[in-house]
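User: quick one
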Amino acid sequence: MLWQTGKKDMLDLALGLMLFISALLSLHSKDTMKSGVFFIIFGFLSGLIWVRLEAPDVALVEIILGSAITGLLIFKLVKGSKQKDLKAFTFTRLWAGFISFLILIFMLFHLTTIERQDRIASLVFENLHKSGVDSAVNAVLLNFRGYDTLLEVGVITLAIFGLLSLGLKREAYYWDNPLLKGFSRLSLPFIVFFSLYITYLGTFSVGGAFQGGALLAGGLVLFALAGQALPLKASIIYIFTMAGLGVFSLIGLLYALLGYGFLTYPLELSTISIMIIELSIWISTAFLLYTAYSGKL
Amino acid sequence: MEKLAVLSLLLSSFFASIIISLLKEERVFLRSLVNVVAAVYKLFVISYLIWSVYKGITFEIRYPIVPFADFYLRIDPLALLFVSLSSFLWLLTTIYAIGYLEGSPNRRRFFTFFNLAVTSTMGIALAGNIFTFFLFYELLTLSTYPLVVHRSTSKALKAGGIYLLYTILGGSLFMLCLVLLYVFVGDGNFYTGGNPKVKNWAMENSLMAKLLFYGFFFAMAVKSAVFPLHQWLTKAMVAPAPVSALLHAVAVVKAGAFGIVRLVYELYGVDLVQSMNLWQPLAYLTAFTILFGSSMAIFQEELKKRLAYSTISHISYIILGVLLPGQLSTMGALLHLVNHGIMKITLFMCLGNYAEKYDVHKFKELDGVGRRMPLTTLAFTIASLGLIGVPMTAGYLTKKYLEAGAKSAGEEWAVYVFYISSILSTLYLIPIVFKAWFGKSKEEVKGRKLEVNPLMLIPPLITAFLTLFFGIFPEGPISPLKWIRYIASREYGG
Amino acid sequence: MISFDLGYLIVLPLLASIFSLISPIRVYIALAFSLLSFLLSVYSFLYTLRDNTPLYQWIGGWTPPLGIGLRLDGLSGFFLLMIGIVSLFVALYSISFFNVEYKRQGRFFWFFFFFLWAGLNAFFLSEDLFNLYVALEVLSLTAVILVALPGYKKAIKASLNYLFLSILASMFYLLGIAMLYANYGVLSMSLLSQKLSDTQEFIYALFPITIALAIKSALLPFHFWLPPAHSSTVAPASALLSSLVIKPPAYLMLRLWMEVLPKDKSLEYLSIVLSIMGALAIFIGSYYAIRQKTIKRLLAYSTVAQMGYLFIMVPLYYHGEILKEAVLQAFALQVFSHALAKASMFLSSGNAIYVAKRDELSYMPGFAHSHPFTFFALFFSGATLIGLPLSAGFVAKFLFLELSIKLGFFLHGGIMLLGSLLASLYVYPIWKECFSSHPTKFYDKPIPQLMEISAFLLGFLAFSSGMITGFLLEGIARG
Amino acid sequence: MIWFYYILAILLVIISLYHFIVARNYVKRLIALNILGSGVFLFFITTAKNTNTESPDPVPHALVLTGIVVAVSATAIAVSLILHLNKEEE
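Assistant: Done. Structure below.
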């Protein structure tokens, strides 16, 4: 109802304005705690804006990863130190203002040159039936530009082992509260099941591996927040973290050896292989964010 | 087969240096064996090459190693002259060094770079184009730097620093001229009588050609210690005796002089140098260096410094001979290239013996050394007489040809320069000889002849004998005169 | 035989990084896979010589603009060879380094090492702008973690600054891609170059991309993060960083300027600015390098100086009708010689610190007396940095001088010559320390054989590769 | 309406760049970087919407998805480094 009427533009304006204000407040406030809170609001609002711009997949990832998990990480930072952001010298402020103003003018000029044109959209929709997945975004993500995603999963695995190699020995923050403990133990199986559903959903509509993985990570963090260790053995977790990159590159290599070419899924096998890849990404993303929170596996 | 011979000349000492670098420090005998075998092998190859070049066959190797130029080794009479001189003197220096460095540390490193220096000298002699010449010219810098700083005392390090500074500056100037040459002319090969492409290029833009000539000249003058660029030589005296013998008589300084010979005769060509009157200002400069070197030598208390200044002046003999027009002065120059090498190496070896045996470094410590070390001092005397240019010695020959050349070129002033310089030479050499023979030494001579061990005694005696032999029988079988006359005639289109 | 697929060059190191996590057989996996990857990169280099047209491969069979293209031409083949050589010797060095020092970090080092190798191969093969962004991100994050590897405060602070600047640069680069995509709707470089010939809008996108690549390759105004980052980490890591990780952004900048963007006036002025920055980088980098007291900071500043050479070359392309191959040859050889020489020097500095336990130059052990092979490594790689003949550095300088004189850029030629003189000013102290026989400099602690040999071979290769540059550059000459 | 989001994206990029240069403590700089990222992603998604096909162009969506995940990994590493520094300071 609200969508269809002329009031759509009003909604966009309101959302856009609130987004800008929250960004301004988060950046400008002196106390880092306040800027952390505003940053989480900013993340949530930008998720909403993605929905307005008809990008549901991105909205899902943005809200879970962008605002919830990143917000949690920044909170971890802000909770400890009561730092005040000290005032920079006037010279740097002037210099920064000048540079930003210059780029602003520059970018506005560039805006005039952008015109409405159909870029790669039509090509994607034509080849969608050949990609083995119905949702356009996941087709691009896992088939047309699967190589990007391979490197991206690599970045995830890199981040996991980077965090482990930094080896933060400090105990992660947890809240020893029986109610939370009970609730998290009760809800974990449902969260796992639901995130699997989201991952599966990705093949034909909104959803996908990253969103599912982030959801699972939320569950795991909730579980760890209550102070309990994960019920899995350490070596299994170790293999899970390696699963993402391992499975993806093995499949890529397999198809190269079979002669189809690197990461080229034959038509009939493409859906299966994409499913396997999605599962491996699902588990790796989950454990990236879990390690980011707890600092150790 | 010939290709292999030319390459093996170069590679024999290169492999020797690699083998030595792999040998442990304690394997003294094996290391000396490898050294001597490499040197002797080179002499055999050279005798074979002389025999075949005499029959008129010339061979060359050409590999395209770099997009703009190729690696070009070539045997021609001039190259052979320098190759035979340096490899013969190298054999003697190697034997001398083995004796001299008995029991001193780091000989593994010393002989590795010693052989690397030999390789680069061979390369300099055999280079067929200016690019390959430059490759080995700079490799010579690299391989002699560790030799100069071998003692690694703070003084040696400072001397090494200055040496490196001069040679790298010279190297950069050389590189700039090389690039200009390859950009404007595109070909840097040496042709007897001058490179035709360079000639007709020089016809149009003579200013650029003149600048390029001076650039090349001064780049090589750094190594041959012409007046403004000579400080590094006197400072490098801090190196051990075989190194200073090597630097002054055989490798570094001669490489610079040989480069100028190549530049004047084989790149620009004699008639071009004369017609564009390139040589006049440089002749005055080298003449000044001759007088400057000899006069400074008189006041040096340090014996090795004195010889260093004498080298500065005598190398400029060669360059002046090259610059003066006329076949006679060319012959004089090439003759001095050989004779000075032999005589100066004898002097340095004798000084090395004095320093090693009785720790004699200063002029005043020389009293009575002659009586205690008669043979070494005899060699020293013969060599210094040769340097002065006393008849019956090789030195006299060069003086005769240089003066005749100067007269024939109509440059009277050059003749006087040679006279004055030989007088100055007597002033700084004869006092040493007198003090050594007739000076009153405090402790008495006891027991048998207290000479250095044979390894250090024989080389100077051989070279002293050669100075006499070349002087007495200039036309003799092994004397270079006939060979030099043949080269000079080719250069002047004979 | 299995057909040659560019994917192997990326997947093999990735799998190696995964398998190297299995702790018991880590060293054997490391050795086996580094040899295998080295052979693969040599094969791909030889492949470019054999086949004349550049080899294109569309991943997944989707031709651009839909899919991502991998391209193996003369230039990328040459750089793959460079990466292979440096990585192999750094791997050999690290095998003995990590069972002697920093044992705890050794566990994860191999993962980052092979991952870096995969990222570098992916970068030089890729032909798609967004894919280059992800590869750049892979390189930066791995580099950041490698800088933070030792774990003490100085390294963490340096890696944090490095991380912030590299995230900023990546975001700028992404902004540039977004602007290009908004205007032309295409991500692959070859298609982009066709579309760019008529219009003018690419200037806007070029600005953020150039800033981003300048930050990542530590060009002058943005070079502050490099010295602390490269000097505070373990020797093999700083060898990889200094010789390999900061080269891709410079390579991408040059490729964008030469192949993708059309030759037009406004670009020329921007290229002049770049070359001024490059020249300043040489002088200021060398000035600071000469003043440094510790060997690693000296080498880090020398990297800043040597990177300046790469950016001087950009305006050359715009003058006269010279072929772009000539500029690419000089560029590629300069990168090659600096990579090998700098890696060998960092490894030797690792040996120095292993023996002397201190980083200061005055405490550097007199290698000329005690450890001949490390001395030869420093000696040959120093000669390559200065650009003495027979070394690849010399030929690179010669090619560049020839180009700049042919086009009348005497100033650039002069800067290059002056640069090599300055280089000798900061290489000389290292040689002097190697030779000095000051009593505090005698250490009889032997360095493990493998560490010395790998440093020496890298240095010797850098020096002697001058002889085979004709063969090396053949691929690039063909374009 | 497209131009509104474009300007919004540019403004986000500008203010976060300004604050990145001005901010002195690490947390503020990290937040500035994340907002800069969101600005760039907004620019991308608006370009996706700026087509004449009825549903938006999926390629920028995939790119932004990858971008967000990479940004999160970078932030995770940054957070761990900052924690390491704070731990050292105490």
